[in-house]
């Protein structure tokens, strides 16, 4: 018979030995097994054109990114910028989380570009097939267009009332803070210097581009595949918080797709207002090329990338050995140099 004065506890601080054992030995709940994957399903998935799946993923990803962002903007503007309905801080988070969700849900299918400038940079720097570039860009713009169209339908009554009030006040519909600015960016009333607006967009997009390229660098020890979607999203939010009040776009597809919607509902002034639209649409491309070139030419450590196993020397092991020999690395030190990216502080060079 168990000595009641010698009660032991196991793994918990609130159940006696007998109760603990009973819980541990309790039959595990059996969940219904998932249906086996049929050959019919495999055949169907194999029959889908790869290009169509990639286009669908890019369009869906841009939709996931743009839709919550412009919805948050609509809630803010349509309620007279009352803090209870949002702020620039909320809008920044809407874009950030939308980008993270876009990468998580659609990145495995298409690679998760969601930006024509990124697609072009992948083609130039990373060997992405140039033949895929046009339909990736089309899908990205289409995704933003659909986000704008659906939002206009969902907020139709509120936007119509806002439009009527704006016209009655003599302000029109296309201006910063007006009905059309729910969908895309317009400069403020006092922003008439296009060079100034160009520089704002260029440096904002360059900032985002460097963060994206750093997150995609397999030799970067600070960003894991799990954290990359949120890090990239935060880069966008960071720029929204800092510069949305003085007009930024950040993405050709995001701006052009929704600007077309704005032109459908509010007229061609969506493209002609202060001659600004070309900055919002086009500057993203050279800015992102500048950012990725800066990273590739100044910050990239290809030897460390080879050391992670994510890249190889173009001439194979012999080419790598010749390089290490030429820079003064003895054969026994090759592994250490690869691990450390060729740093001279490791004593091998």
TrEMBL record:
<keyword id="KW-0472">Membrane</keyword>
<dbReference type="InterPro" id="IPR023271">
    <property type="entry name" value="Aquaporin-like"/>
</dbReference>
<keyword id="KW-1133">Transmembrane helix</keyword>
<feature type="transmembrane region" description="Helical">
    <location>
        <begin position="84"/>
        <end position="104"/>
    </location>
</feature>
<feature type="transmembrane region" description="Helical">
    <location>
        <begin position="194"/>
        <end position="214"/>
    </location>
</feature>
<feature type="transmembrane region" description="Helical">
    <location>
        <begin position="226"/>
        <end position="244"/>
    </location>
</feature>
<feature type="transmembrane region" description="Helical">
    <location>
        <begin position="56"/>
        <end position="78"/>
    </location>
</feature>
<keyword id="KW-0813">Transport</keyword>
<feature type="transmembrane region" description="Helical">
    <location>
        <begin position="279"/>
        <end position="297"/>
    </location>
</feature>
<dbReference type="InterPro" id="IPR000425">
    <property type="entry name" value="MIP"/>
</dbReference>
<dbReference type="InterPro" id="IPR050363">
    <property type="entry name" value="MIP/Aquaporin"/>
</dbReference>
<dbReference type="Pfam" id="PF00230">
    <property type="entry name" value="MIP"/>
</dbReference>
<dbReference type="GO" id="GO:0015250">
    <property type="term" value="F:water channel activity"/>
</dbReference>
<keyword id="KW-0812">Transmembrane</keyword>
<protein>
    <submittedName>
        <fullName>Aquaporin-like protein</fullName>
    </submittedName>
</protein>
<comment type="similarity">
    <text>Belongs to the MIP/aquaporin (TC 1.A.8) family.</text>
</comment>
<dbReference type="GO" id="GO:0005886">
    <property type="term" value="C:plasma membrane"/>
</dbReference>
<dbReference type="GO" id="GO:0015254">
    <property type="term" value="F:glycerol channel activity"/>
</dbReference>
<feature type="transmembrane region" description="Helical">
    <location>
        <begin position="133"/>
        <end position="152"/>
    </location>
</feature>
């Amino acid at each position: 018979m168990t000595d009641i004065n010698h009660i032991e506890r196991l793994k918990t601080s609130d159940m006696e030995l007998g109760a603990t054992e009973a819980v541990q030995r309790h039959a595990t709940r059996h969940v219904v097994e998932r249906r086996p994957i049929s050959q019919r399903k495999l055949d169907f998935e194999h029959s889908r054109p790869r290009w169509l799946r990639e286009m669908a993923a890019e369009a869906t990803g841009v939709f996931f990114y743009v839709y919550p962002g412009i919805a948050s903007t609509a809630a803010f503007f349509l309620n007279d910028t009352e803090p209870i309905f949002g702020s620039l801080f909320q809008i920044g988070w809407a874009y950030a989380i939308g980008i993270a969700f876009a990468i998580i849900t659609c990145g495995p299918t298409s690679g998760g570009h969601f930006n024509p400038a990124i697609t072009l940079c992948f083609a130039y720097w990373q060997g992405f097939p140039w033949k895929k570039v046009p339909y990736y860009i089309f899908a990205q713009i289409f995704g933003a267009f659909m986000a704008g169209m659906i939002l206009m339908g969902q907020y139709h009554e509120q936007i119509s009332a806002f439009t009527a009030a704006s016209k009655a006040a003599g302000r029109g519909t296309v201006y910063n803070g007006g009905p059309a600015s729910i969908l895309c960016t317009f400069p403020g009333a006092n922003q008439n210097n296009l060079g100034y607006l160009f520089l704002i967009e260029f440096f904002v997009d360059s900032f985002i581009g460097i963060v994206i390229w750093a997150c995609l660098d397999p030799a970067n020890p600070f960003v894991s595949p799990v954290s990359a979607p949120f890090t990239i999203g935060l880069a966008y939010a960071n720029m929204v918080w800092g510069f949305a009040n003085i007009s930024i776009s950040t993405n050709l597809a995001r701006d052009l797709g929704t600007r077309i919607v704005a032109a459908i509902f509010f007229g061609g002034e969506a493209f002609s207002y202060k001659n600004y639209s070309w900055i919002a649409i086009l500057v993203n491309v050279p800015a992102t090329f500048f950012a990725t070139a800066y990273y590739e030419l100044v910050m990239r450590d290809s030897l460390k990338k080879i050391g992670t196993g994510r890249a190889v020397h173009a001439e194979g092991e012999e080419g790598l050995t010749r390089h290490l020999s030429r820079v003064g690395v003895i054969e026994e030190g090759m592994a250490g140099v690869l691990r450390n990216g060729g740093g001279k502080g490791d004593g091998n060079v």
